[in-house]
Design brief:
CATH superfamily of the largest domain: DNA methylase specificity domains
CATH topology of the largest domain: Adenine-n6-DNA-methyltransferase TaqI, Chain A, domain 2
Oligomer: single chain
Number of helices: 4
CATH class of the largest domain: Alpha Beta
Strand order of the largest sheet: 2-9-6-7
Distance between the termini: 76 Å
CATH architecture of the largest domain: Alpha-Beta Complex
Largest sheet: 4 strands, antiparallel
Structural class: alpha+beta
Radius of gyration: 27 Å
Shape: elongated
């Protein structure tokens, strides 16, 4: 049976930590997750291990939520990292599966984003996340749904990658056809300056227009 439940009852919300930007570097002990890193493949910023409180780590299986901008959501699977401020994570409480939460939350957060007025960057609060109400089945059904969505989204991602590869190959083929058509020409070669001459049809007397 599906029941309406608050996100705060399904997961423990932990906010990111306000690290000192002076300690940021492009290499170091611990990768730092910032909002721009939620859906990125690589980390850009690192921080010394001694500067990371024990409660400021994100681990595989957590749900990461961006609290500024587009309110992006990701099921974390990139290893242990430090969580920067204006991000939060959800860890399951009792009968909840974090993969299910990661799939269910984006539509609810989009509604909040659409209804949030801002002249600059939109902001999300921890209270708003905890107060979200969503329909959730039993833990077993949540896992079944998450397993299905994992398979389907992986299949779709594979198809997208294949399409992108084909587009890249077609672009190379197009370039090759153009090069062959414009360079592999028999007969005498003529400089372009001998094929074009000034035109008197220009509406701009100060400009020279070339015509064949």
């Amino acid at each position: 049976m599906w029941t309406e439940r608050r996100v705060g009852d399904l997961g423990n919300l932990i906010n990111g930590y306000p690290f000192d930007a002076k300690e940021f570097s492009n290499q170091g002990d611990v990768p730092l997750v910032r909002i721009r890193d939620i859906n990125s493949d690589q980390f850009e910023t690192f921080i010394p291990r001694g500067s990371v409180p024990a409660t400021a780590y994100v681990s595989d299986g957590d749900v990461v939520i961006g609290m500024d901008g587009d309110f992006n959501v990701a099921y974390w699977s990139r290893g242990r990292a430090a969580l920067n401020q204006r991000l939060c994570i959800l860890r399951p409480i009792g009968e909840s599966d974090t993969r299910f939460l990661a799939y269910a939350l984006p539509s609810h957060l989009k509604v909040i984003n659409d209804l949030t007025y801002s002249t600059t960057v939109k902001h999300l609060s921890s209270a708003q996340v905890r107060a979200i109400r969503l329909l959730a089945p039993s833990l077993e059904e949540q896992r079944t749904i998450a397993d299905f969505l994992d398979r389907e989204t992986a299949r779709i991602d594979t198809l997208i990658e294949e399409q992108q590869r084909l587009i890249a190959l077609l672009a190379l083929r197009r370039r090759a056809v153009l090069d062959e058509a414009t360079t592999a020409v028999s007969g005498p070669q003529v400089r372009l300056k001998y094929l074009f001459g000034p035109s008197s049809d220009s509406n701009y007397p100060d400009e020279q227009v070339l015509s064949v």
